[in-house]
Amino acid sequence: GTNTVFVDAGTAPSLCANNLSCVNLLGTIGGGVPGYSFAWEVQPDSILFSSINSPQVCPTATTTYLLIGTDSHGCQASDTVQVLINQPPVANIIGLNSQYCLSSPPVTLTGSPSGGTFSSDGPGMSGNTFTPNIAGVGTWHITYRVTNFSTGCSDDTTFTVIVDSLPTVTISGFSSPYCRDASPVTLIGNPIGGTFTGPGLTG
After folding, report:
1. Which residue, 30, 110, 117, 175, could crosslink 94 as a Cys pair with Cβ 3.0–4.6 Å?
2. With 0-12 CB in 10 A as exposed, 13-18 as middle and 19+ as buried, what is 5?
């Protein structure tokens, strides 16, 4: 009677395009007449690349591998296994400026795609809210990390944010008190760029 050859190319894990690694395939041959030979080919081009039962492959894109098993009488069977390369999500942070004053109000951040988590290398980050006066003066790095749970692939992005101290404001150029008929006095604010307010002030 005929003793059929059975070939099993096994299974292979899925990989992430931003975290590629090599995979050991594991093929088995049974039935037929022992004295088996293995022939692994890359599909669809039928490129022979290995003649052992457990070759290592390092694909950079989704690839199908064909295992042809032959017994000692030349009877053959085949099976395929696919190494799937999944694309990761592309993490992004929306709503975060690169610079804030210490007195700036809390900022609500949006992570894209949704479902990820925010973290910081300093204080001031709680949930998706960044609070400059809790973070304190300095340069901070805020990270958003998100995972696509259907593929298991993750991505993260990190933004740098600077929290500046409040300026020390001084006024020079006047000497109180003044008489009502005194000449106008030019005031100088330091640092420049501010505005003067009050009765009798122009400019």
Report:
1. 110
2. buried
